[in-house]
Amino acid sequence: MPKKTFYLSEDDLAIYEKAKGIAGDSVSSVIMQGLKDYVVKWEMSEFDYNTVQLFEGSEVHPDDVRQGQYFKFVGKLLAEDYREELGVLTINYQLYATRKGKYLLYTALDDEQKGVKTYSKVIKDDVAGLRELNLPPELLAKADKNMPDLFVEVLDI
């Protein structure tokens, strides 16, 4: 296993000792978690990512009683589109790029006739996966504006 030597200032030594007391022999895992957190924060600021919290499940009107759970991820909103179908169904699409290079489609389907709003997510590894979803062309056009290379095929030739 490779080894690295870290030099600490006198001021940082107290923090190191406190972490060592809490973590015991696994101080390296604490240091690595700190480095991972640092990289995530840097990537968030560098690429305009945010921590996004959304709900997946259903909401019953008029009481707004929710059944489901919240989830969080680090991502960037690429596009949003709104559709109304048959006068009673409203669909709101939100397309996100995640920090790990995947795509998350978040959909809110509001059935006014039944009084139920359903929230769902679909995660795709690549743009080809997004195309399989038959999304509104306007949503994909907005995403392409916000991330110009989104639909560019990279050839390894």
Write a concise keyword list for the protein shown above.
4 helices; EXLDI protein; 157 residues; flat; 5 strands; alpha+beta; five-stranded antiparallel barrel
SSE layout and pairing:
Blueprint lengths: L9 H14 L3 H20 L3 E11 L4 E21 L3 E10 L4 E9 L4 E9 L2 H5 L5 H10 L11
Antiparallel strand pairs: 1-2, 1-5, 2-3, 3-4, 4-5
Low-confidence stretches: none
Q: Let me know the number of strands.
A: 5
Biggest sheet: strands side by side, in what order?
1-2-3-4-5
Measure the end-to-end span.
36 Å
Largest sheet: 5 strands, antiparallel, barrel
What structural class is derived from the secondary structure elements? alpha+beta
Q: What is the quaternary state of this protein?
A: single chain
Organism: Geomonas silvestris
Protein name: EXLDI protein
Task: Write a concise synopsis of the structure shown.
The chain has 157 residues and is of the alpha+beta class. It contains 4 helices and 5 strands, in the order H-H-E-E-E-E-E-H-H. The chain has helices at 10-23, 27-46, 127-131, 137-146; strands at residues 50-60, 65-85, 89-98, 103-111, 116-124.
Summarize the structure in words.
With 157 residues, the protein is of the alpha+beta class. It has two domains: 10-46; 50-146, no CATH class. The protein contains four helices and five strands, in the order H-H-E-E-E-E-E-H-H. The protein has helices at 10-23, 27-46, 127-131, 137-146, and strands at residues 50-60, 65-85, 89-98, 103-111, 116-124. A five-stranded antiparallel β-barrel has the order 1-2-3-4-5. A hairpin with a 4-residue loop joins strand 4 (103-111) and strand 5 (116-124). The longest helix is centred in the N-terminal third of the chain and has 20 residues, at 27-46. The radius of gyration is 22 Å and the shape is flat. The two termini are 36 Å apart.
